[in-house]
């Protein structure tokens, strides 16, 4: 395992950092505050993208810092998962930064799906505008009425009727559903109950303006609507799309989902690591600049011990994630499944603890919007459930361990 | 220590439970949802109290379940801290319930201050309408520009100028400041820097419509404005009030604060225990009613172990709090300071862990407003900072321990 | 629940404290050191009781501080479980103190069994000398070849053959087996496999010199033989005892075991609390008397926070145990089963953490025999397995919680 | 950072594994049991090395698996710290294995000191027989009468008197002092109090048979004498050695100590990781082979979650240690100090938790000598104090973090 950054990666790290220094950090607080004011509640139909976002995207595109996540050398920058990882870390320091580089979830995952599994028609119709950052997309997997941690519980259905696919079911926690530019969702549903467990589901691309789709509401995750992107609940009733919208084939949903999740978790985890670094940085700055009982806060009681624990936890989380990235690149997603589950468990927990420490150092300021810490905390907590609860992923890790002894 | 509930207490527990069964639980979800819709963001000038609240308050008053927290037999119900404790626990199960019984913070603390330390004029003018539930009040202690965990950092000032007190300074996290009925704040400030450390501050009652008071904004605590009550930031610039508004005397602020905090922490902690019981109840219901991998969620993996840990933690927290209440009643607040610090540390941490477990069992539903769990989590986390960060209270507990060996 | 100590209890606490001050603490270190030297390894046949022990027992008997655990007013002192609890706490401060007062496990449990379930013959023959402190006894339950956390796994058998009971099987972790005065064991075994799950086992009193009993070895628990008492492994091969040695009747083993365990766990837990107090005391003394980096150790980094956490944990553990004791006394063992499981989980964990903190403050000295801390640590860890692993007891607590929702 | 094992390393891993498979594992249990019987207590003067040890050493030497730790290509095998790391991991699986390969502490550290800092005379006299495995050595640093976590507390002295050095002072926790072959100790003491803090101490090689050295006793660490090597207390009274025995020069003790500790901690940590792997392996085997409540133990409750947590923790610990090794090799020990402190904190804690889990799965068997788990636990706990308590190392990590903000 070589975690060394190649010259190419080092160059990109420098360029992403420089871009953030020049263009993003100077407007970070402004965009946080104004986005919040522009989108005060759950009234998603009126949500607006901050006016600085599109110009920033344009700048990133012009700077050649665009679609960095995509391994393709033409459509992306030809970076491996391991090479892209430190760039995702940099982006994770600012809540909206990955979007500026067209590297934000769930679009990245959807683009990967279309890139790897879409046919020419699908790529032209949907991958192209996604890669251009012109539209945004949604991924519909989790359902409100069942425990979605067990995918076999899925109730949504897709049936072939002549040349059309008929879709029914409810999805929620569909990320990005509230975004003004959200145009399509990938919809996963039961199609072939007669097949074996991992060949029963299919994935279909569904334009969001198709009749029969009702967006019920946006959901707050720990008080955060994450506007103007949002996590929504949508109900599909006899929604009809042409069968050309089917990805790969009936019953291939699981196979596609597997491939999609691997790199996506690396991205999530590396962003979380960047986020943790930012939280630690904020903690240090606050802890050195405010005093109580005659000393900087940071020098009181167990605070320095907690800083050390944070530093150690961040280092371990980064190494584990880089190892998983390396395995994806070198052994394939399938042979990295356990590693991908392992980081899914370890990294959000680390982030939660580091952010919690940072909030405690900040006192009341840490709880409100004067700092991004409360949103970091909400995000970290949500990640312990997103893509399956930690417990399910621990089960995955344990299963492999058990295999050695059976 | 006798933690047995007296017949009187048992009677009140029954009555509070019956009232909640009949009047509060049936509208719990409705009030949560509609209050949220009525008060969508931080625009506190337009915040509204849910129309069911005042009628419910009237009903509680008629039922003799009013001002239960106040030990006075005439103005309250003559309940000791220990006797009131289990009633606070019941109220803690619903976010708005304590208000219905006129037992909500910070009004309870302010009423206690006025009851114990207010003169006849002050009691008539402010205690009376507070006890009647006609007005609401605010407590201004924490400041935005310094580490308020060290009270000697306080920058706000109060000076005597003829017959008037002149107030200057900024306060934030002033609970209840956004409420339409909030009419006064108790304001704590530096008045006598020449005195010894615990005699430098004074407390003044300040009507919120006094010129020079500017309410800057309401603060979100972990995404929650807690509307229509809220936690606000106010700036006082040369605010003048008659010297009759001074509580007790110049330099008496700390002595008053000490007395105020003791029972208030019992209330907070008992409500937290009720809140934890509710969270555990929700976890059990969800965990038994949803299934994955062929079993109710609750029967999977380590879930039952976590339920047991929650039950044990709740029991221990309740006993520790009852012990502190007993000591306040029997040994006085001053001799219970360590116990009061101890519950300040132990109970919010317990609540945080129980709620976290409940959220995990709920999956995505636990993060959004379909259940009160996300708000419970926000409240629990905030309590680790409110009234001083845990670390300061651990310092108090350690100090007493150290004394034994010095 | 009234946890107040009665005048009677207060008197006994004073007397036990005074006895320990006068007679036990002055020889504590000497007895630790010399007992260790007298009994250097696992060669149990040569184990010797320290010569000061018997005289100390005599003194305690003369002082009326004897058999304090037994609720009987004639044979014991008529103390309830709750009244005895604080005395056990005092005894727990010194590893051998409970023996001085004839209040040591497993004799207490065995005396309780004989007291509650023994017939006149059995009481005269075995209870009398045990109460006199003339002999010691053993309890044979756990088995080496199966997971004994599930009692239905038990492989030892007892069969009626004419007027004799024939016993076969292996037991280990039989506490006290190495003691020179150990004369009998209570032996639990499968007798009635045809019965329902809780009526299949029987308990028999077996003199240790009966032919067919082989004591295989004494077991170290984390490097500690606990000489000269010890935990042993014994194999019984066609051991024959008269059927008069059967307790209550065939198939009554479980019922007896249930009754035995309740008060015994209170004793264990209260001793653990005394042990934790002693560990905290040692930590404070060491932490205040040694310095590094210019300060007493106790004033460095997070040490005071850890002291506060220890104090809070001890208080909570004590209250939970007193509550369980109160329930045993007032509601019966059966209705206190969950509470008894709860303290089994909570108290050893608390002890482990407090002792671990104390060891860390002591540095190298905490690991070796200069202080009793390493043995406290071994004992605490063992308690997480003794009487069933924590996980089984969490299962008990969860089961009751689940019942409320089924 | 390239953690990839070179072909050379891969070859050595295979050979070490094969050697252990063929020669060590088959006698592992036998040597554990018989060594324990040979050396029943603290009577170190009669301690004996198990008769199989020397023949095994000879075999390892013949197999070219000797002094693998030493980077020198002639005296050792020319392996870098990173290359040696996985070999140390393999050795860590068996308590006595590192000795077989002449890679055991504290001899490795002492050999490194003599290799890097010894002059020709010193190397010929002491390094040579150490490299040959003919003698063993001791390192005298920690002192009984002061908090040795602060090295400036050190009370032992060394003074130049003509051509002799005069040594006085007490040392304890001197590892290997009880070994029959222990012939020398490196002794660190205050020599130049007038110098700046890091130039006040010197290191001297002292033959253990020099008059004035009294070995007071061997110390148990959590019940384990670690015979026949042991950790001892020695008192030096006017011990005189020729000044040729001084390492480097007066006042150079700290500089030598720094260099010594880096690779040593990598070795310790990698052995700990091997030890954790072994503990997890034992847990899996026991957990799959014993059943309760109708299932293998491993399938009950939260056990699989704990296995997953163990696996994740081991992976993270290994990566962090490999990173530190890589930094030592590529950036120098000085630039890896924080990393070395970080693994000192993270790895023993990980080991403690993994071993604790394994013990819990084993039940009573985990506590006694039937498995090496209790000794693993003692070792893990000791490592949280050895080479400085965790708190001091957290301070190191925090200091570097603070530097970034000062």
Automatic annotation (TrEMBL), chains A, B, C, D:
Keywords: FAD, Flavoprotein, Oxidoreductase. Residues 14-134 form the Acyl-CoA dehydrogenase/oxidase N-terminal domain. GO terms for molecular function: acyl-CoA dehydrogenase activity; flavin adenine dinucleotide binding. One of its GO terms (biological process) is fatty acid beta-oxidation using acyl-CoA dehydrogenase. Residues 251-399 form the Acyl-CoA dehydrogenase/oxidase C-terminal domain. Residues 139-239 form the Acyl-CoA oxidase/dehydrogenase middle domain. GO terms for cellular component: cytoplasm. It comes from the Bacteria. Its cofactor is FAD. Belongs to the acyl-CoA dehydrogenase family. Homodimer. This is Acyl-CoA dehydrogenase family member 11.
């Amino acid at each position: 395992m070589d975690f060394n950054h190649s010259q190419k990666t080092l160059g990109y790290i420098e360029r992403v950092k420089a871009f953030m220094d020049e263009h993003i950090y100077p407007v970070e607080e402004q965009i946080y505050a104004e986005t919040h004011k522009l989108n005060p509640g759950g009234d998603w139909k009126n949500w607006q993208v901050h006016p600085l976002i599109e110009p920033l995207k344009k700048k990133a595109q012009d700077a050649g810092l665009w679609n960095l996540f995509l391994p393709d050398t033409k459509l992306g920058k030809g970076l491996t998962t391991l090479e892209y990882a430190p760039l995702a870390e940099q982006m994770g320091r600012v809540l909206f930064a990955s979007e500026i580089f067209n590297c934000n979830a769930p679009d990245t995952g959807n683009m990967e799906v279309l890139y790897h599994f879409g046919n020419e028609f699908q790529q032209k119709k949907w991958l192209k505008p996604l890669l251009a950052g012109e539209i945004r997309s949604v991924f519909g997997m989790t359902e409100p009425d069942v425990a979605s941690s067990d995918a076999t519980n899925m109730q949504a259905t897709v049936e072939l009727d002549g040349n059309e696919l008929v879709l029914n079911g409810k999805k929620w926690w569909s990320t990005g559903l509230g975004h003004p530019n959200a145009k399509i969702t990938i919809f996963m549903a039961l199609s072939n109950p007669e097949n074996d467990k991992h060949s029963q589901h299919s994935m279909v691309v569904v334009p969001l303006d198709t009749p029969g789709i009702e967006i019920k509401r946006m959901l707050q995750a720990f008080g955060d609507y994450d506007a103007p992107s949002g996590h929504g609940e949508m109900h599909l009733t006899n929604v009809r799309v042409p069968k050309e919208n089917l990805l790969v084939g009936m019953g291939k949903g699981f196979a596609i989902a597997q491939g999609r999740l691997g790199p996506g978790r690396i991205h999530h985890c590396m962003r979380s690591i960047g986020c943790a670094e930012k939280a630690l940085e904020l903690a240090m700055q606050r802890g050195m600049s405010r005093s109580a009982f005659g000393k900087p806060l940071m020098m009181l009681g167990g605070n320095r011990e907690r800083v050390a624990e944070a530093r150690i936890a961040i280092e371990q989380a980064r190494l584990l994630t880089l190892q998983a990235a390396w395995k994806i690149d070198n052994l394939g997603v399938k042979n990295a499944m356990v590693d991908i589950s392992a980081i899914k468990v370890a990294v959000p927990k680390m982030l939660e603890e580091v952010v919690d420490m940072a909030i405690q150092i900040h006192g009341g300021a840490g709880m409100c919007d004067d700092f991004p810490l409360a949103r970091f905390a909400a995000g970290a907590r949500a990640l312990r459930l997103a893509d399956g609860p930690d417990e399910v992923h621990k089960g995955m890790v344990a299963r492999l361990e058990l295999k050695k002894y059976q």
